[in-house]
Amino acid sequence: MWRYLAGGAAALAMVGAGTLVFGNHPSPAPLLPSQPMASQSGELAADPLADIAPAATDRTREQKRFDRYDKDRDGKVMRDEYLMQRRKAFAKLDTDHDGRLSFDEWAIKATTKFTGADADKSGAMTAAEFATTAVKRKAPARAKCPPAPPREEAS
After folding, report:
1. Sorted alphabetically, which InterPro entries does this protein's record hold (predicted)?
2. How large is the average pLDDT for residues 22-51?
């Protein structure tokens, strides 16, 4: 009978130890302060991250493209502004600089592009090789965010 009592006491001791070890978790310190922070001007800011987080622009790809063409920033793309981008592309193809794009000049560019994409030199492009001929777009510029202020540790 004493074995049952010793086993019961040991089980109760284990339950008590488990409650002490696993049941008493301190709550973690909040990552953001719960009180509004004072801005540099001394006023309380409604949003504690208002001074830290940069505002995102909602410009579309077409608006960005329009801005690249609109060189004088007057909100209109004039004929010369539009053709300037085309002239640069044309000038790269016009190898003899006569102001005319002959079939041979165009074919040189097309053949060079095909040869560069045909990695296995089989004379035909696979789907993966063809995908390399797509126009390369520049990656969007990353926003330069100011460094985060150092956090004060609670004592």
Report:
1. EF-hand-dom_pair, EF_Hand_1_Ca_BS, EF_hand_dom
2. 59
Asked, for residue 8, whether it belongs to a domain, the answer is no
Domain membership of residue 69 (yes or no) is: yes
Question: Of the candidates 125, 117, 95, 87, which has an alpha carbon nearest to the alpha carbon of residue 103?
Answer: 95
pLDDT at 58 over 80: no
Q: What is the Cα–Cα distance from 32 to 151, expressed in whole angstroms?
A: 9
**Number of alpha carbons in the 13 Å side-chain half-sphere of residue 90:** 11
Backbone CA torsion sign across 37, 43, 46, 51? negative
Q: How many domains does the chain have?
A: 2
Q: Classify residue 134 as exposed, middle or buried by CB count within 10 Å of its CB (0-12, 13-18, 19+).
A: exposed
Choose between 28 and 62: higher pLDDT: 62
Q: pLDDT confidence of 153, banded at 50, 70, 90?
A: low
Nearest residue to 31 (alpha-carbon basis) of 4, 52, 15? 52
What residue has token string 């978790």? 25
Q: What is the pTM of this model?
A: 0.33
The parent domain of residue 72 ranges over 59-93
